[in-house]
Amino acid sequence: MRESGARAAGGDVRRHNLALVLGEVVDAEPVSRATIAARTGLTRGTVSSLVEELLGAGLLDELAAARGGPGRPANPLQLNRSGPAGLGIEIEVDHVAACVVDLTGAVRATARAASDHRDAPPGVALARATELARAVRAEAGLDVAGVAVAVPGVVGTDGIVVRAPNLPRWSGADVGPLLDGLPVTTANEADLAALAELWFADGPPDALYVSGGVGVGAGIVLGGRLFRGAGGRAGELGHVVVDPDGPNCRCGGHGCLEQVAGRDALLRAGRTTDLDALPAHVLDAAARALGVALAGAVNLLDVPVVVLGGIYPRLGEALRAAVHDRLCERVVHRSDVQVRLSALGPGGALRAAAATVVRQRLLRP
Amino acid sequence: MRESGARAAGGDVRRHNLALVLGEVVDAEPVSRATIAARTGLTRGTVSSLVEELLGAGLLDELAAARGGPGRPANPLQLNRSGPAGLGIEIEVDHVAACVVDLTGAVRATARAASDHRDAPPGVALARATELARAVRAEAGLDVAGVAVAVPGVVGTDGIVVRAPNLPRWSGADVGPLLDGLPVTTANEADLAALAELWFADGPPDALYVSGGVGVGAGIVLGGRLFRGAGGRAGELGHVVVDPDGPNCRCGGHGCLEQVAGRDALLRAGRTTDLDALPAHVLDAAARALGVALAGAVNLLDVPVVVLGGIYPRLGEALRAAVHDRLCERVVHRSDVQVRLSALGPGGALRAAAATVVRQRLLRP
């Protein structure tokens, strides 16, 4: 049973109870008013009144009445599939994407376009993103409650892009005012990819989620929650040094992980434009570099699982096994650190971005 | 005002209230019963009864009566300087040490002896530690409530030494049964050094505390609390790779930080037995290696402060400044990460070990 709303302070009680009722529906839909009352400790009358408000706000939906005993039939409740939706936008070095999810987190429309933003100001990618956003909104036909933007860079707690080494003109960008109309939040792509594993793939509660692209990021999940660090900028695995005398990096350092194991670095070293055609020596070097950086992260954080996402699942089981071996060579406590490939595919961060919008609505109705 | 004890479950209420009263004394000694009642929300009668029990248990002490109004004089209360004490033991690669702290955390006796344990089984160092412990107990003349042992290795949540690369025969050692009589806990030396900075030097609540010795460890403090990781083994900074082709390390890896910036490595590279006589090129290499490893830690954890303790303060301001420069070159978000030298001196971990014992008594009387 959830904690009853009785302890919340005066004016917040109703709001708290609305979230409590929604939480029951999220956990166990379809669910009756009577079950909600039994599980929350609220009276039947209070639950009915809260449910009316949530039906009115378009957050809940009533299914056909269940046949049963005497009296008024108890129509089971579920989240409204036509209710407020979330719009996710993904800005990447080489593409933009947009998707709409409904209140249940299901993807209702998605679109993606190749587009190189390496030397472009934020407005270029955002204009393309706005076009895609318009298309997916039209396709989904839902009211969008807000927008969350995934950015491959360091995002501060205020949502401003601190620095995106692979999108140098995005430093200091405040995405909010650039997408007019809707409330906008901005988050780091790898953090969102980690949340996607937690939310949509039953990912482990203590893990380092690696997101491989042109850059390499990581989302750190501890005790089932995203760890953001004191300034909200944790998880910059791509700039952990794997070779102090290695090539210059766009971050201003040199020998960073992403200069060996990022997508562009892999393609350059393999003299190919196709990730599936990378020669063995390039994959070996990538596994070695990932092993060095990840061993450092495991030695510091003591996480039991590493999940490789983004481009890495495409590189296959051989890469996974090699990374695992390289990592274990260098982990002090020698426990069996697991290395897994993500099964979610590249759309995870985008879907998680959109889902953050609806989760906000459900947590704070 | 602290939260009143009223919410604690049935049989635990008195215990909870005892801790509440003790907490008030810790925060503001000397303090009167009336002030404790006002600050905890407990009745005067309840406070008096709890105080009697704490006086009887030797945790509190009554000062001379304050002159004042009519009625029974209100004797101010303080922690009992003759009450239960904590014994700390430090096992290091090249020495052992022991100290006794009283309930206030003040050091009442301390002793240290040089002794090389590199290839010895745990019993050797523990026998020496037991001798020192006997001496400091006799000198302090206090009843010791328990022992905490600081070990320069990875300690699991069960207190067993998982692995101490510089004390290879300690792997798997369970210190508890080896020190007879008293309840024993075991903890990582760098974690205790970090707690020492927090408890005794007003250290910052988000920081990486580096402890330099033969090995190099780190205690990670986030939000004012020690971060131990899922398995209690976080903070193994010394085995973060700073040069993938570097020298072999006792951990089985190679190119680890402590092979460049640990005490033995520094003395070997400087061809000296005196840390104060290290040539500039050795200090430069150490600063570079610390910069690489710490930049990785800051990129991953986003901590705003690094505190260098153990041997590093002896190496001076020039080392601190060089580490800061090397670190900032490689930190992605380019915020001004501070690098400080610890002002606590080498006894911090030992004192914190002893203090963990008395803190337990005060938190769970």
TrEMBL record, chains A, B:
Molecular function terms from GO: DNA-binding transcription factor activity
Pfam families: MarR_2 (PF12802), ROK (PF00480)
Domain HTH marR-type: 20-62
InterPro entries xref list: ATPase_NBD (IPR043129), HTH_MarR-typ (IPR000835), ROK (IPR000600), WH-like_DNA-bd_sf (IPR036388), WH_DNA-bd_sf (IPR036390)
Family in the record: Belongs to the ROK (NagC/XylR) family.
Xref: PANTHER family: BIFUNCTIONAL UDP-N-ACETYLGLUCOSAMINE 2-EPIMERASE_N-ACETYLMANNOSAMINE KINASE, ROK (REPRESSOR, ORF, KINASE) FAMILY
UniProt protein name: Xylose repressor
